[in-house]
Design goal:
single chain, 587 residues, mainly alpha, Heat Shock Protein 90, 3 domains, five-stranded antiparallel beta sheet, 20 helices
Length: 587
Amino acid sequence: MFISDLQKRRFSSAFATAVFTEFIQIVALTIDAIIVCNFLGEREIAAVGLASPFFFLSGVPASMLATGLQTACTQEMGHGRIDSVNRQFNETITFAATCMALLTLLLFLFNGPLVFLFGARGNAADLHGLTSQYLYGLSFDAAPFVLASILTPIVVLDNGNGTAIVASILGGTVNIACDILAVKLGFGLMGVGAASALSAFTSFSILATHFFLRKSIVRFTPSRFHWKTIQKIIHHGLPNAVHSAAGMLRSILLNALVAHTGSSIGISVLTIQNTVMDFVDILSVGVAGAVAVLTGIAFGEVNGDDILGVGKLEHRYILALSAAVVIMLTLFHAPIAQIFLSTDSEAFPLLNFVLFCIAVGTPFSALIYSRVSSLQAMCKEKKAQQLEALSNLIFLIAFAALLSIPFGVRVVFLAFPSSKIVAIFAIFFFYERKSGKILPRPKDYLDLDPKFFRRENDMISCPFSTITDSVLSSEQIRLFCKGHQLDNRKCILSSLCAEEIMTNIVTHSRKSEKRRLLAEIRVTIVEGQVILCVKDNGMPFNLSRMASLLSQTESLVDNIGMKMICSSAEEINYYRAYHMNTTIIKV
């Protein structure tokens, strides 16, 4: 299957942004763990591990609303409905801020019962006080963390990649600096927890500035939320809520199981394992982030070919990146273990075994991440929820609970890669039976409505980078329309509109863009209507806004080409994501 250079550039840009923002956050969390291990002790790191369900607790609304809003917005962008993007964004922010104020209050009031629920009982009862201190500090983290999580994907979609990266860097820097300060001043785990809260507030404050910039398409406006909108967002984001809820339940159960079979040593290693897995999963999150955005946009465009292209790029990235991670963890497991523990620690051999388990599970975990993102973007939330529940909770707990009693604590850690592997095979066998083929095709896994895949004679796609390309492409478009027996006037208008906008892109890209122009025009005929979809990496050019301005001018000479497009178009929509323009014209 042919994948255009423009699609490759979009995928790499989306991947790089998702990886970098996730990298900064995970580095900060990793340094947190290292600081606690080296300056406070193993009991403190065990207490941090017992409090880990908190991150899943706040992660439920964060991931659900952030991913749900991103899915809705990318699909609306695919249609070119920017007004709808703004409305849904503002309603979601209002709803989230209200809920987080309530959650923060509840965390303070029910600190003791939460600590007990998280596992500070039985063999780990002596960790109750330390865990409670950490949780009090973290209570301030929930609201800014959730709001920052919601803002980040929208800032990135609105070409605020730089703002998102700066917010991640400064947030991570504040976290590390405040952690060190808390240790030096003797604030203990409460200070470490408060440092995380201050870090989240820093990131949120920086992200919020984006929506007040003049260049921003998405903007803050006071808005009441409507339940219909919130229900839609929650529905889109439910698989991520299942992921976080399963993570919280899994964390509570495994804390109890590891405490029973491996005492506090096992809990310490489990805490370090979670940190290392978060770090390794950065690449998986990056691929899944790119898949979510680009598949969502292509779904809004009803463009099955682009969805297939994203899938092919997704698997290329997973293969290359997983191989690199597996090799690194296999060759350097001992030095990595020494970052967290000294070689004479009782937990050191167990941690080495855990690193091997992480290496084995990495490729399968990346495939699960991306599969869930793809299903969400295509409005197949139920399948995404089932996959999340199976791979991250049911299979994992089943393996760990059934085998840890006779075989010991190591089986608990071996359950992590095993659950992912079984889930991947379950996906394969499901589609093998559904399609009736030994090797299902990529289209079988997508399971999309046939309308997403246009017949070859109903759609053409033409890359262009020069004026000559524009002229030749416009002639192809005229002949394409004529071949569909459209009236001669519509054939000529479609051709002229396409040539004018392509020429405009080529001309203006030469003035200021040093990089190579990547541009393509996709023409589709749906029930006699010609739809031109033009994508390029040139200067920002909002034809929809220009159409509004030109309708107010009386000159018959100025911008005659643009006026011709505007007068011929039934509808013009525009959006710019990852510094690339998309203009959709219905002739």
